[in-house]
Amino acid sequence: MYLTKKDAMSLLCSLSEAKKMKVAVMHRRTMGFAGTGAFVGAVVGGPAGVAVGSLLGGLLGSLTWSMEFKPVSHILKELPPPEQEKLCSHVVAKIGTLQWRDIKHLTKLVMEDEALQEQLLKLLEGYLTQELKTTVQCSD
After folding, report:
1. Three-state SS at 26
2. Phi/psi-derived region of residue 101, left when phi > 0, alpha when psi is between -120 and 50, beta in every other case
3. Which of 20, 43, 81, 122 could form a disulfide with 139 if both were Cys (CB 3.0 to 4.6 A apart)?
4. What Pfam families does the entry give (predicted)?
5. Are residues 59 and 98 in the same domain?
6. Which residues on adjacent β-strands are paired with residue 70?
7. What torsion do the CA atoms of 98, 100, 106, 109 make, to the nearest 10 degrees?
């Protein structure tokens, strides 16, 4: 049977959920530190205070990045179609001539085959670390 992009993403999502794979995502907690710093600096120190306040606010803002972990399945669903297509072609190469009826059957076959499972997990982890420049965490 032909593996569609949707089926490949479904297979990878099922596999990543089974292994409880997560990726580190950086995001800003708060914004507006530089503007607030400039305003406070202007009130307290006049024109020179604007520059000092902006500098201190910008430094404080750069320190407020936090890292959280998102499930890999969410990341896969958010990928643009060309990236999904690229992953699909890699999955097709890995599953080779495996005979399957539908995506549920394919998922079952993969879950029963440790070697194939490891190949797909390495493929997925490699993609996430190389293409998306993120770290992967498994809590299997």
Report:
1. strand
2. alpha
3. 20
4. C19orf12
5. no
6. 23
7. -60
How many angstroms separate the CA atoms of 140 and 131, rounded?
A: 23
Residues 17 and 38 in one domain: no
One domain for residues 59 and 73:
no
Residue 90 φ then ψ, to 5°: -70, -40
What does the pLDDT look like over 91-125, one tens digit per residue? 999 998 889 999 999 999 999 999 999 999 999 99
Tokens of 63: 């320190």
Shared-domain flag, residues 79 and 130: yes
- Give the domain extent around 72: 5-24+68-138
Query: How far apart (Å, rounded) are the C-alpha atoms in residues 107 and 100?
Result: 9
Q: Average pLDDT, whole number, for the chain? A: 85
Q: What is the pTM of this model?
A: 0.70
Looking at the fold, whether 20 and 51 belong to one and the same domain comes out as no
Residue-wise burial string across 15-24, b where 16 or more C-beta atoms lie within 10 A, e elsewhere: bbeebebbbe
Neighbour tally for 115: CB within 10 Å:
7
